[in-house]
Amino acid sequence: MLVLTRRRDEAIVIRNRFGTEIRLLVVDVKGSKVRLGIEAPPEVNIAREEVRPRGSRVEDVARELAWI
Questions:
Q1: Could you tell me the sign of the dihedral formed by the alpha carbons of 62, 64, 67, 68, in that order?
Q2: Which residue pairs from 41-48 have beta carbons closer than 8 angstroms and sit at least 24 positions apart in sequence?
Q3: Does a structural domain hold residue 59?
Q4: In angstroms, what CA-CA distances link 21 with 16, 24, 32, 53, 55?
């Protein structure tokens, strides 16, 4: 796992080998809560982990590999 430190209004860009980019922007920090803005192409599904429907682990890995 890569751990990075960012301040408010700083971003991280994730790019795959095909040039698809996801941009994570730290919008606000209040106490222990961090608000993130996420810019991604429409074909990239974004969901909070705690509400994401869980498929089988094989389906999860296949979905991740298809994006990479």
A1: negative
A2: 44/20
A3: yes
A4: 7, 10, 28, 24, 25
pLDDT-derived band at 30 (thresholds 50, 70, 90) equals very high
- Residue-number span of the structural domain to which 59 is assigned: 11-67
> Higher confidence at residue 61 or residue 6?
6
- 5 lies in some domain: no
What's the mean pLDDT in 15-19? Answer: 89
Strand partners, 23: 13, 39
Q: Can you list the pairs that 11-18 forms with residues at least 24 positions away whose Cβ atoms lie under 8 Å? A: 16/67, 16/68, 17/68
For residue 31, tell me if it sits in a domain: yes
The average pLDDT across 20-42 equals 95
**Is 18 within the bounds of a domain?**
yes
